[in-house]
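Section 5.1 Outputs to date
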Amino acid sequence: MIAGAASRGFDSVFLESTRTSMNIDLNSSTIFASLFWGAIGSGYWVYGWKQKDMVALFGGIALIAISYFISSAILMSLAGVLLIVAVFLIKKYRP
């Protein structure tokens, strides 16, 4: 790879070696949804950590994780709302 750097130029070798096989959609709505649900999840996580509430703690971790695993803003928002409702219902009806 280094031997070919002199003939093709360093920039092309660098770009080829850092290229990944992940196909990430980075439009503005996906970035905003990821930021929004990550912030809500961070709040849930901090609340669960301080209050020693495992439902809120793992709900926050799940909200943070959806921004990594769901690449559609609409599906991410739907999953975020469902997670918040699930945390609320579990906390309300838990004995």
